[in-house]
Amino acid sequence: MKRAPTRKRAKDQRVQRSNIRRTQAAGKSRARAQSRRVAITGAAPAPAHETAAIFPRAARRRLIGLALAMALTGAAIIALRDAPRWPSADAQAQAAADAAWREATRSAAVAAQDAVRIGIVSGHRGHDSGAVCDDGLTEAALNFAHATRVAEVLRAEGYIVDVLDEFDPRLRGYRARALLSIHADSCARINDFATGFKVARAAHSRVPDEADRLVACLTARYGARTGLRFHANTVTRDMTQYHAFDEIAPETPAAIIETGFMDLDRQLLEGRPQVVAQGIVEGMLCFLRGETP
């Protein structure tokens, strides 16, 4: 009768020892798994029951949702900040109006400046001597003396004056209220009739009426001031097809003047250059002021 309990206790002890061994084996497995996670991540994660205790599942979901919303909001803000800003229709219209006003102002300023700008070409200057007298007097020297005096007087009248060389690069597309090229005739003794002056415009001027009026003013005023006669029969193709006429802007009225013959008219050209210059100035002012020749 006493052996049965003994056998039962022995069986219970075996079962208990088996359960202990299984528990120990499971603990070792968990320890090995945790060691592997620590080796990979570098930090031991909190036990699942601790994480759940600190952040319940519902709270974790709310935190994840909040983080996602904040990330999306930040991305939207950056996108709006970096997006190109297109001006409104009113702003575009105002910008167009401002640009048009600036262009109109610039064009008006250029036109106003052109209206008072005068070009004076000093014949042969910077290229060659032109006609030469036996004693060394050159046409280029006479022309420059006359051109500079003309420029001084016209500037005193309030005009902008450019003194240009014979083949001045500024002649290309040159725009002004008028352009005049100053020259003098041969120093060779031709005959007793080789005296007087002449004025001509381009044979094919784009502004013939204006150019004709410029020629008429110069002819009338220069002849009256100097007393020289107009030597019409010696106007040459070198004058009517003068190179500068083809270089300047087509809307610029232009003419060329031969102030006199360097032989028979030398006393005037060299001895009284102020009279020559005054005659040219009066002719230019006649044209610029719209006077009757």
UniProtKB/TrEMBL annotation:
Region (Disordered) location: 1-44
Key words of the record: Hydrolase, Membrane, Transmembrane, Transmembrane helix
Basic residues composition bias: residue spans: 1-11
Key word DNA damage present: no
Residue ranges crossing the lipid bilayer per the database entry: 63-80
UniProt KW Transmembrane keyword: yes
MurNAc-LAA domain segment(s): 118-283
A Pfam family reported for this protein in Swiss-Prot or TrEMBL: Amidase_3
Biological processes, Gene Ontology terms: peptidoglycan catabolic process
Name of the protein: MurNAc-LAA domain-containing protein
Biological source species: Candidatus Thermofonsia Clade 3 bacterium
